[in-house]
Description:
The protein has 254 residues and is of the alpha/beta class.
Amino acid sequence: MKLEHGARRALVTGASRGIGRQIARVLAEDGARVALHYGTQRAMAEESLALLPGTGHVLLQADLADEAQAAALAHRAAEALGGLDLVVNNAGIFIEHPVGQVDAATWAERWRHILAVNLMAPALIIHAARPYLAEAGGGHIVNIGSRGAFRGEPSAPAYGASKAGLHGLGQYMAQALAPDGIFVVNLAPGFVETEMAREALQGERGVATRAQSPLNRVARAEEIAETVRFVVSGRADWLTGGTIDLNGASYLRS
Length: 254
Ligand SMILES: NC(=O)c1ccc[n+]([C@@H]2O[C@H](COP(=O)([O-])OP(=O)(O)OC[C@H]3O[C@@H](n4cnc5c(N)ncnc54)[C@H](OP(=O)(O)O)[C@@H]3O)[C@@H](O)[C@H]2O)c1
C-alpha cells in the first residue's frame, strides 16, 4: 500500500469535459501531476487544465478509436510526466443503434467503433502502462464502466457490451497485476449530468430518467470523481477486482 501521494503521475483519458475533467481535478487536488487526454475538444481540454491546482500537468491528444494512437498514449504520458502511478480509463462514447432500425453495415460499424473506444483502447492502455506502474513500485488503474453493463442497453447494445467487457477486463487485470502492486477497480455509474446524457435528461424523458432513482435525480460528475479519489487513496486497495455501483439505487443487483 502506497500512502505517499505527493508526486503521483496520472493519466486520465477523456479529460476535456464531463466526468474526466472532474477526475483530473480531484487527482491534482491530491497532489498528482496529470496528463489530461482529449480526443477532439482542445479548447475544452485547456479549460480542464486551467481548473487544476499545482503544476506539471500536460495535455495529450489521441483518437482512441485508432489502435496505434491508443497503444501509444500511456508511453507518451509516461514520457511527459517522467513515469506513471495511476491510470483512469474514462473516455467513452454512447451511440444508439437499435437492432430493428439500422442496416447491417451501420450495425457492424457501430459495434466496431464503440468497442474500439470503450474496450479495446483501455486494454491497449493498460498493456502499455503496466511496466511504468510496476517500475513505480505499484499503482492504480480505474476503469469507468457503466450501470448499462448490468441493466441492459436495448437501443445501444454495443455500449452495454463494451462496458460489460470493460468490467471483465478490470477484474482479470486485478488478478494479473496484483503481484506488481497494481490495484484495478471498475466504477459503474448510472446516469451522470454530462454532455453524454444530455438527451436523456431533457424534457419528459429527463423526468423519467431522474425518477429511475428514488432520490429523483442523476449523479453529478463530481460524485464519480470523489469515488475515484477514495479508490486511489491507498486506503481502499482491498477493493481491487471490484465493480462499484454509483447509481442512486436506480438499479439493484445482488
Ligand atoms: N454520463 C453518463 O450518464 C454516464 C453513465 C455511465 C457511465 N459513463 C461513462 O463515463 C465516462 C465519461 O463519460 P462523460 O459522461 O463524461 O462523457 P462526455 O461528457 O461525452 O465525455 C467523453 C470524453 O471521452 C472522450 N472521447 C470520446 N470518444 C473519443 C475518442 N474516439 N478518442 C478520444 N477521446 C474520446 C471525449 O473527448 P473529446 O471531447 O475531446 O473528443 C471526452 O473527453 C464514459 O466512459 C462513459 O461511458 C457516463
